[in-house]
Amino acid sequence: MFYDTAGMHAAVCTLIGFLRYYILKILSPREGYEPGLIPSVDSMGPVWFITYSAIIIFIHHLIFFYLEIFRFNEFFTTLLRVILSTIGTFCFVYVVQFLFYKTDKNK
Fold it and tell me: What is the pTM of this model?
């Protein structure tokens, strides 16, 4: 139904949008979040960002690749694709954080 279309990404991103609230609730700091805070390495710290982005990216790739293949007879091959794609995407996202999200030195 979604094969080779943007529909697969739309379905997975809708699921991520739904799960994001629960993931943020689990990872919330003791004092809570500031309103309007953008989740980045600078604003939340590297450990929080690594945990948050790794979970989101892993869930996205897990659902996306299994929705794409739509069978479990190649379970371990697909799981390896999920893990390797998660690592590659995470490295890209982490580098982009340092290229485009600069710290405000005036604080």
Answer: 0.82
